[in-house]
Every structure is written in C-alpha cells, then in structure tokens.
Amino acid sequence: MRKRAAFALLSAVAALAGFAVPGAYADETQTDVQISNVSFDGGKNIVVDLYAETITVSGTFTHPSGIQDADFVLWRGPDGANPYETYDDRIVSNQYYSHADCVASSATTSTCSQTFSLEPDWKYGGTALTNAHAGTWKVSVQGVANDDSWTQSASYTTTRLQRHSKLTVNAGPEPVANGGTLTVTGKLTRADWDNLDYRGYTNQPVKLQFRKAGTTTYTTIKTVYTSSTGNLTTTVPASEDGYWRWNFAGTSTTPAVKATGDFVDVQ
Asked: Is the CB of residue 236 less than 8 Å from the CB of residue 221?
C-alpha cells in the first residue's frame, strides 16, 4: 500500500479511536473517491447466534485513476470521545480492522468487499460479543484511488447487530370440539451472548395469528406479552380448522421471527 494511502487509513482508525490526528485527516470526508451501494449481505441486519457469524460488507468505489484500496470498520461510541468499540476481521490494540478486496469492473470503478467474523465465544483472545453489544453500529468507509486521492467517512451509514431469536407454538387440545376452548402456548427466546445459551425474552408483545385451512393469509387475533421467562399463553374459541402461530415483530436488538403454524382440527 502506498505511503499516502497507508497514512490515510491509520488516520481514519485513529480518528475512530478518539486520538488526535492532523486537521485535514481527522474524521473528515474528502470528495476525490466516489462511494456508493454500501451494504451488509445485501442490506440485511447482522444477526448472530451462539457461534461465530461471518458477514460481508461491500461497496462501489469510483475514481478517474482507478481504485487502489478500500476499508470498512464497524464502530460505536460518542463522537470525539472514548471509549470506542470497533469490529473487523483482525484485532489490533482492541480494534478490529483490515483492508477490503477490490475487483475492478472498469478502469475507473471497483467493487470492494470485506469479511467480518463476529463471535460470542472468542476462543483466541480479544473481545467476545456480549449482550450489551446488540444494537445500532456505525460504519466507517474509506476508498483510496491509484493517484492516492481518498475519501474517508467515519459515519457513512449504520447497521444493526442483533441477537438471533426463536419462537415456538403449540395449540391444543387436538382435535377440539367446535365451540370449545383452544389453548395456545409458545415461547420467545433469543441468543444470550453472555451465557452462550438461549434465554426467554421478557415482556415483549407477540401477535397470535390464525390461518383458515385452504387459505394462505394469517389474521391477527390478539396480542399477548411474554412472561418473565419468555413464555406465551392464551385461550381462544375454536370454530374452524386451521393453523395457529405466534408472530414477533422484533426490536433493535432482536430480529423478527414467526413460529411455524400448528394445525388444529375442529370437530
């Protein structure tokens, strides 16, 4: 990597870490390299289970001289102050960063991508994901042209880092008499990165939905809140054959999830 480009990258990382850098480089966006189409796995949120999750961030970089290098960093923290937490695919001084792989589509434009491995159970030292890490993260992006022109934006976009969720359902008795009472139970859980297992998600609104046999659309019957252990239970009158499910809309730290419909025969 060229000397100017290397300095730009180190300046960008230093700016994220809250260190002082020369004025022209400190968290400042230059306009030489054009950046567009930055997304994680096609625009998805980052959802991590109890094991390592590998994701790819990519973007399009354009400059008349062509693209030399690019860099992406996940970070969060108060602007201009410590502590900052950053994630990338290798760790240096408690920060994760590296360089993207760039593939030219023309003499002036390249698509650059970078892989991140996020681990709740960090087996090789460093900082493991904890429950407190779930939420919104900022994305720093830098592109370096072949003539050493560069663009660096510390807060180009944002992404959500979420704890994987699960949702179950059980409706009974089966079969049930027409006009009888049907009890529908279930449980909403999510990955607990602190304890490396699944724990109930407390006091969350979850919709009970019904789909009549022979149709394709679910209708919301009522909303029920999870208990302190993530459990759900309610009763409804039985009137026709069909499928019952729970539907959770998700939060900033936990993705939406739907239970697989449970069929009940009404006799």
From this structure: yes
DSSP per residue over 90-158, as a string?
SEETTEE----EEEESSSSEEEEEEEEEE-SS-BTBS----GGG-EEEEEEEEEEETTS-EEEEEEEEE
State phi, psi for 88 to the nearest 5 degrees: -160, -165
Cα separation values, 257 from 36, 93, 166, 219, 226, Å:
31, 37, 7, 16, 14
Calpha distance 89→86 (Å, rounded) = 10
CB neighbour burial string for 125-155, b if at least 16 within 10 angstroms, e if fewer: eeeebeeebbeebbbbbbbbbbebbbbbbbe
d(CA 247, CA 260): 9
* pLDDT, mean of each 10-residue run, the chain (267 residues): 37 38 39 89 91 91 95 75 45 48 97 89 67 90 93 91 97 96 98 96 98 98 98 97 98 98 97
98 closest CA partner among 120, 117, 82, 122: 117
Q: Are strands 150-163 and 46-48 parallel, antiparallel or unpaired?
A: parallel
pLDDT at 42: 82
The pLDDT, as a whole number, for residue 92 is: 35
**176 secondary structure, DSSP code:** B
Q: What is the pLDDT of residue 85?
A: 53
The C-alpha atoms of residue 97 and residue 49 are separated, in whole angstroms, by 22
Handedness of CA 21, 22, 26, 31 (dihedral sign): negative
Quick check: 220 and 208 in contact, CB under 8 A?
yes
My answer on whether omega of the bond before 64 falls inside 30° of 0, hence cis, is: no
**What is the per-residue pLDDT across 174-187, written as a single tens digit (0 to 9) for each?**
999 999 999 999 99
Q: What's the pTM value of the predicted model, to 2 decimals?
A: 0.82
